[in-house]
Amino acid sequence: MPATGPPPGADERSPTCRRLSPACPPIAPPVKEPPVSQHHPSHDPGLPPVPDPHDAPDPIDPAFTADWTTYDDLPDDQRWSTWWDVEPLSRGPEPRPPWVVTSRGAVDVDLGVLKTGKEADVSLLERVDPHDPGGGVVMAAKRYRSPDHRTFHRSAAYTEGRSMRRSRDVRAVKRGSTYGRQVAAAEWAVAEWAALVRCWRLGLPVPYPVQVDGTEILMEWISVDGQTAPRLAQTRPEPRLLASYFEQVRDVLATLAQAGLVHGDLSAYNVLAAEDRLVVIDLPQVVDLAGNPAAADFLLRDCTNVCTWFRSRGLEGADEHELFADLLSHAF
């Protein structure tokens, strides 16, 4: 019986390949290809679905969208809000009252002069966004005049102990140049702004300071029934309210003294009577009780002014020397 097996020279690992040389690489068996699918790729569970061009696109991420509102041009007698034009430290202290308007589209409308003072004029200014007319607010805008147009000539005594940041400004003010006069006007605005902010933080009854921009301070408008609150000097309170008013003034002076401050020009003309509440205004001349050599004299004069007025209205016991001694005990 003939022997069976691979023919001579054949590779035992492949029935179809004859070994030509020991260096001939082994031949792998043929790989069987899978059958080609005849259905749509989107039907294959192993592949992601093919999007339908008729489907709605995915929503856009809100982080890549923007919204804006158009505004009309302003007439010459109006201006855009200057809230975002000033530095952060030139805006009112936080937390801010809800009535403060901070919209970038707000418009400032000057409503006319409210009063004229010794060193500045006060006007009413409305700030409102045209797209939110119900959210507007009326404020008091105090604008300081240059030294050439003031009737207040005692400024040197109040500025004793104050310092300017830049030596250039000091030289300009001493020379009385045009720039120096502008610096001097702005210094009074900055001084009152700093006093308002400090007094507000102390919890004193002062108008809320909204912002300062150069020689202009915007602050809370103190009103009663839509009209500017009267000065204390214009009122004739009944005895119980008069006594309450005196205690409020005493508390203001005591809090200032404890903080090392003196109003410097306090009288019944620099206090507003908002019904049963008093609000102190006109603070540019606030002096440091320890840093100004005349601070004690200013404090005694403040006591004399207010006690003289209260006695004239019939309040017994309003004694300036007693009040002065009490305030010094709070200060030292």
Structure notes:
By secondary structure, the chain is of the alpha+beta class. It folds into 2 domains: 77-221, Phosphorylase Kinase, domain 1, CATH 3.30.200.20; 222-332, Transferase(Phosphotransferase) domain 1 (Transferase(Phosphotransferase), domain 1, Orthogonal Bundle). 27% of the residues lie in helices and 19% in strands. The chain has 6 helices and 12 strands. The protein has helices at residues 155-159, 167-175, 178-201, 239-258, 295-312, 320-331; strands at 78-80, 107-116, 120-129, 132-144, 209-213, 216-220, 223-224, 227-228, 261-262, 271-274, 277-280, 287-288. The protein is elongated, with a radius of gyration of 41 Å. The termini are far apart.
The gyration radius over C-alpha positions equals: 41 Å
Shape: elongated
Number of domains: 2
Q: Helical segment tally?
A: 6
Structural class: alpha+beta
Unreliable sequence segments: 10-14, 149-154
CATH class of the largest domain: Alpha Beta
Provide the succession of SSEs.
EEEEHHHEEEEHEEEEHH
Strand and helix layout:
Elements: E1 78-80, E2 107-116, E3 120-129, E4 132-144, H1 155-159, H2 167-175, H3 178-201, E5 209-213, E6 216-220, E7 223-224, E8 227-228, H4 239-258, E9 261-262, E10 271-274, E11 277-280, E12 287-288, H5 295-312, H6 320-331
Antiparallel strand pairs: 1-2, 2-3, 3-4, 4-6, 5-6, 7-8, 9-12, 10-11
